[in-house]
DNA sequence: AATCTATAAATTGTATGCAATCTTTGATCT
DNA sequence: AGATCAAAGATTGCATACAATTTATAGATT
């Protein structure tokens, strides 16, 4: 069970950060929940030192809030952050898609389409993770590792907001038809259409989630 | 001299990260230089624990490369990163300026103008820092803290590339007239002009630096 | 009961210590 | 000389230890 035992010395903090990131993004750890160093160290069978380093990495990504002498809490959700996240994703993903499109092969679009098939066959609990895969697959050929990392980080945050709304909102079906539209535009190598559709896809999702957040 | 002695318990890592960030961005620490934990701990009068946490924060920002069991080095410079940085800044700063402009007061534009005066009166060694202040002042009213933090991080990286080129390139005078143009467009509340000029300002600077990098 | 206060418990921040890993050095061999 | 390799030294990764700080508890006071 303990995952850490199989890991090499030297990247415990990195792996811990990944594990915690998943727990936060998936909603398993709720916003505001305190993250006690000793408890995390016990759970992952290590000491507090790598835990603290992992928390610093998550702090930099904005998934964890760190207050001196008080400790870490899972970052809270608020409408203002969602709005920023949506706007930043729109800007970054449009850039990534525009840059990737000239190098995007049919095989890669097929790969994205296969992920979309999986989305439609899977439970909503898998939507966030698969949605990220779908988009990242299309952006992959842009050859901009830092841009991709930035987008991935923004998706992690967005996924938190999706998580709280997905079960209530009937969002997945609309998203699916939008994904199909993006795929068609990619196959047709219609850059403007692909970009416009992606932009709308992101902004509309943001608006829906924002409305949901404010209501509840 | 030791800055750490005046600092409260609990944010040593944060302050260390700021100090190191400045040293890296200013070029005082050259690309590729190894950052030894023990040495940094001695210099800042602390132990290796806060040093390690500071290095994690800088790793997340991309200013430091961390290899397990080998240690940290100041992140190297390369043309590909500069290109990404330029594109990402263009996207993010256009968004910030567009959002800030409706809330930008004349007093705030005056503030930016004063910084531009200072740029023109100062040594080139101050250009990077002041240039960042100039732009951030104009973006301030956008009320998007995470976007601003993102842009600030990108500027830190950009400043490293500026640093190596500024002494050779006659860049500052062109940049100054571009800054004046941006200020005029802001005073006139001409959003499209301000955005177009800012976009070009960023992209042109990127191109100049890229050419310089490739040549040398 | 509510508020304050002092103490104890919990938790964090940092220093130190030691084992694992990497790097250097110098001896040996070809 | 150059390559090879073992041992010493340097450096990192992590665990433990302890002090500083916060939080919880219980008693005293109004």
Automatic annotation (TrEMBL), chains A, B:
SMART domains per the record? Answer: FCD (SM00895), HTH_GNTR (SM00345)
Return the PROSITE patterns for the record. HTH_GNTR (PS50949)
Q: Which domain of life is it from?
A: Bacteria
Checking InterPro entries in the record gives:
GntR_C, TF_FadR/GntR_C, Tscrpt_reg_HTH_GntR, WH-like_DNA-bd_sf, WH_DNA-bd_sf
Keywords attached to this entry? DNA-binding, Transcription, Transcription regulation
The protein depicted here goes by the name: GntR family transcriptional regulator
Q: Which Pfam families match?
A: FCD, GntR
Q: Where is the HTH gntR-type domain?
A: 10-77
């Amino acid at each position: 069970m303990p995952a850490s035992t199989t890991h090499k010395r030297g990247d415990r903090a990195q792996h811990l950060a990944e594990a915690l990131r998943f727990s936060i993004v998936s909603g398993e750890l709720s916003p505001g929940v305190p993250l006690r160093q000793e408890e995390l160290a016990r759970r992952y069978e290590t000491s507090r030192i790598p835990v603290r380093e992992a928390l610093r990495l998550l702090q930099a990504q904005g998934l964890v809030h760190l207050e001196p002498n008080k400790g870490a809490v899972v970052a809270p959700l608020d409408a203002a952050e969602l709005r920023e996240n949506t706007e930043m994703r729109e800007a970054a993903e449009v850039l990534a898609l525009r840059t990737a499109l000239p190098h995007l092969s049919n095989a890669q679009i097929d790969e994205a389409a296969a992920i979309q098939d999986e989305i439609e066959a899977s439970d909503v609990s898998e939507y966030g993770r698969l949605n990220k895969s779908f988009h990242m697959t299309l952006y992959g050929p842009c050859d901009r590792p830092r841009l991709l990392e930035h987008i991935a980080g923004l998706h992690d945050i967005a996924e938190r907001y999706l998580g709280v709304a997905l079960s209530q909102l009937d969002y997945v079906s609309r998203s699916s038809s939008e994904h199909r539209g993006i795929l068609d535009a990619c196959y047709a190598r219609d850059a403007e259409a692909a970009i416009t559709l992606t932009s709308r896809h992101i902004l509309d999702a943001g608006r829906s989630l924002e409305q949901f957040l404010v209501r509840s």
